[in-house]
Amino acid sequence: MPxxxxxxxxxxxxxxxxxxxxxxxxxxxLLNKRSTSWRKxxxxxxxxxxxxxLSLLLEHSTLIKRPVITDGANILDIGFSPATxxxxx
Length: 89
Description:
Blueprint: H1 8-11, H2 15-22, H3 27-30, H4 36-40, H5 43-51, H6 54-59, E1 68-70, E2 75-78, H7 82-85
Antiparallel strand pairs: 1-2
């Protein structure tokens, strides 16, 4: 199965793509609340991220749980799990 790797830090993140991800059933899993980046946010930023994460995720792509596995348009899975990763390799 062909795939491509997209590094948010180097390649950036398209706003319209992120908007579609935030409308998906997987949206709640996108925000990585266990990351160092999350811990560095102010309480106010965390509150905003909970309700309206778009601008904060665009500004701090390290807040997105990785990997985000898609079929090009739709999210198939988020986060690394050896058990489920085999389904996509």
